[in-house]
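Section 5: illustrative case.
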């Protein structure tokens, strides 16, 4: 325990016990303080220094009110890694490391770096087609579904997916994390620079 966590009365008592003839080790044991703390108090007394709290002692805090606001505003936003937040703060004149940002987000705010959930990237027409498909076949029985042959294609990938490891969102609630739209069946190429978008699903009906 350091000097700041002890009252001035306790420090004066420790010094008085030493002046009274008690060794510093026994003083530390009696007051349940580290020996190093008792030695520091005694040294200050011998130098004639006040045993009260030093005003402004210690390293200034790097997490100021302005820094807290900047970090808090990053919650729920995409592409806001601790490294990018630290760079943003340094450009504003605050010497904050990404480790400091990470500790504040984790330990003070209680936030977690979530991976963004994936959802299909669909047009309004595709959404409408999917809904109509389900509505039209809502009451189909097993025999009717047996007449459907499900098939698929293997198109070339055009839209390279982003790194899920780096694409994280800091938030205190996973439900507030914005999803990431992904194309289930990306555009395919014919090798000549022409592209066409393949349907997410193709079905073929067989006659009974």
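Designed sequence:
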């Amino acid at each position: 325990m350091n000097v700041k966590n002890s009252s001035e009365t306790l420090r004066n008592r420790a010094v008085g016990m030493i002046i009274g003839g008690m060794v510093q080790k026994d003083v530390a044991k009696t007051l349940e303080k580290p020996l190093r703390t008792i030695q520091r108090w005694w040294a200050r007394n011998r130098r004639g220094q006040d045993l009260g709290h030093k005003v402004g002692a210690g390293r200034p805090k790097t997490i100021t009110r302005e820094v807290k606001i900047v970090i808090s505003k990053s919650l729920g936003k995409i592409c806001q890694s601790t490294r990018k937040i630290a760079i943003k703060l340094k450009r504003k004149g605050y010497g904050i490391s990404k480790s400091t940002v990470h500790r504040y987000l984790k330990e003070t705010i209680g936030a977690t770096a979530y991976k963004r959930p994936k959802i299909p990237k669909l047009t309004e027409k595709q959404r409408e087609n999917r809904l109509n498909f389900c509505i039209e076949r809502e009451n189909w029985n097993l025999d009717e579904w047996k007449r459907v042959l499900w098939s698929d294609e293997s198109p070339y990938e055009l839209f390279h997916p982003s790194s899920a490891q780096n694409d994280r969102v800091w938030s205190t609630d996973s439900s507030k994390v914005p999803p990431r739209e992904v194309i289930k069946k990306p555009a395919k190429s014919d090798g000549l620079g022409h592209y066409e978008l393949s349907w997410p699903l193709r079905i073929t009906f067989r006659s009974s």
